[in-house]
Amino acid sequence: MTTRVHRLRNRLMLAFAVFALAVASLFGLYVAVFVYSVEDRFFDAMLEQEAQQQLDQRAAGGIWSSPRNAFMTVHESSATFPADLKAAFDAEPWRHEFAGTQGRHYHLRALQPGGAGTPGWLVAEVSQQLVVRPMRRQILGLLAWSGLAVVVVAVLAGAWLARRTTRPLSRLAALVDGMAPDRLPVGFARDFPDDEIGVLARGLDNLTGRVRAFVAREHAFTRDASHELRTPLAVIRSATEQLANEPGLSVAGRLQLAHVQHSARQLEQTVITLLTLAREESVEQDARPLAVLPVLEQVVVEQAALLEGKPVKVRVDVPGDVRLAVPGPVLHMLLANLVGNAFAHTREGAVHIDVAAGRLRIRNTAPAGDPDTIVRPFAKGEGSAGFGLGLAIVHRLCDRFAIDLRIEGTEHATVASFSVR
After folding, report:
1. Which one, of 120, 118, 18, lies nearest residue 67 by Cα?
2. Residue 178 has pLDDT above 50, yes or no
3. What b-and-e string marks burial along 138-159, b requiring 16 or more CB atoms within 10 Å of the CB?
4. Residue limits of the Histidine kinase domain (predicted)?
5. What is the spatial distance between Cα 334 and Cα 340, in angstroms, rounded to a whole number?
């Protein structure tokens, strides 16, 4: 978070520097255009005056006179131009300013006498009269140093303004970066100025207050739910243990009683896992890899009641060395919900559980629903007898333990898969 604030400060400073450089360059261009334009207008004015005098002299005496300025000459045609000027003029006859060789520079003015007089040309070689061009290097150097000074001042001003502007934002960012559900600051908004950052701080302060209240309610709920759920499970476990000691219980009854005891124990593990997830306590993230096949076989036996009376075949092709690094209750809950969902929704055909391309796949012949919808809580498929929480629990477990669950299929089949070792 702090790095981002520093980047914001640097961007503000860079914006000031770029803006100052652009302004300095623009005004430097204006200065150069201005001085060159003034110099050219000066020569054009001198040529205008001399041309008028030459035309008056030609009208009075019939000849061109010698110009008053030594750097000006009159030519009857362009054939008598200096060689460097003639070459440039022949190439671009519409121009009136030419750069010659050896530092010479020419300005031209056409002389068009009245009547049938022969036109002429007034040529001014102004290399010795130039003021701006000899000082061009000094002018550019002055503009460059001035622009650099403006940029430095802009960077310093931008640094001061950026630091002053981002200081409260940096404090707020550090405060937010240190927040946790069990570490939420209270009443920090009053330490911030009454501006946009203060509005943001007040909004975050109100939000943290609501989060603290929500966390308190959630803790109270999980504490009460833990008590309310564990109590009937303890009663069931105690009653089944006492019932198991009855001497007149039949073999079939003892078998069903064993299923009830096993289901009660599994439900107790499920309650513990769900309550732990709800409280965001640290469930082992680096659990040792567990063998999938024994848990899968146990789940298939437990969920077999969902296939009673259905023409469905179950095929399990999972090697014994396939493992998944999650806690035991989590693996059991994951497989129980996926296998139970496949058994419950398959009316006929087959349920095939295998491993391919490093993924454990549970395929059944039931049509697939929308993958984004079926993982939502209380989203029930056709014929479902549950509450629509199974795949929602699976989705949450996969998010918590970084399991890449995929549910794919067509209108004739559904495949649920996740990566295994």
Report:
1. 120
2. yes
3. eeeeebeeebeebbeebbeebb
4. 224-421
5. 10
* CB < 8 Å & 24+ apart, contacts of 19-28: 19/154, 20/150, 20/151, 20/153, 20/154, 20/155, 21/147, 21/150, 21/151, 23/150, 24/143, 24/146, 24/147, 24/150, 24/151, 25/147, 28/143, 28/146, 28/147
Task: Please name the amino acid found at residue 351.
Answer: V
Measured CA to CA in angstroms, residue 338 lies from 53, 71, 305 at distances of: 107, 101, 15
Please state, in angstroms and rounded to a whole number, the distance separating the CA atoms of residues 417 and 400. Answer: 17
In the chain the first and final C-alpha atoms are separated, in Å, by 36
Pick from 66-70, 258-262, 342-346 the range whose average pLDDT is largest: 66-70
DSSP 35-103: HHHHHHHHHHHHHHHHHHHHHHHHHHHSSPPPPSSTTEEEESSGGGS-HHHHHHHHH-TT-SEEE-STT
Using pLDDT thresholds of 50, 70 and 90, give the confidence band for residue 161. confident
**Under 8 Å CB-to-CB from 107, ≥6 apart: which residues?**
40, 43, 44, 47, 96, 97, 123, 124, 126
pLDDT exceeds 70 at position 272: no
C-alpha distances in Å from residue 26, one per residue of 33, 136, 137, 176, 303: 11, 17, 18, 43, 80
C-alpha span between 195 and 200 (Å, rounded): 9
> Domains of the chain, with CATH numbers?
2-137 (no CATH), 196-278 (1.20.58), 290-419 (3.30.565.10)
* Max CA pair span of the chain: 154
Please provide residue 308's backbone torsions phi and psi, each rounded to the nearest 5 degrees. Answer: -60, 130
Token couple for 178? 């240190």
Can you tell me the distance from the alpha carbon of 42 to that of 218, in angstroms, rounded to the nearest whole number? 87
Confidence at residue 28, expressed as pLDDT on a 0 to 100 scale: 83
Three-class SS state of 125:
strand
Q: What percent of the chain has pLDDT over 90?
A: 6
Helices and strands (H and E) in the chain: how many: 9, 11
Q: What mean pLDDT value characterizes the chain?
A: 80
**Cα distance between residue 413 and residue 81, in whole Å:** 95
In the structure encoding, which two tokens stand for residue 132, read together? 């701006």
| pLDDT digits 0-9 by tens, 277-310 | 665 544 555 567 889 899 999 888 888 877 877 8
**146/412: higher pLDDT:** 146
pTM over 0.70: no
Angle separating helix axes 390-400 and 251-278, nearest 10 degrees: 50
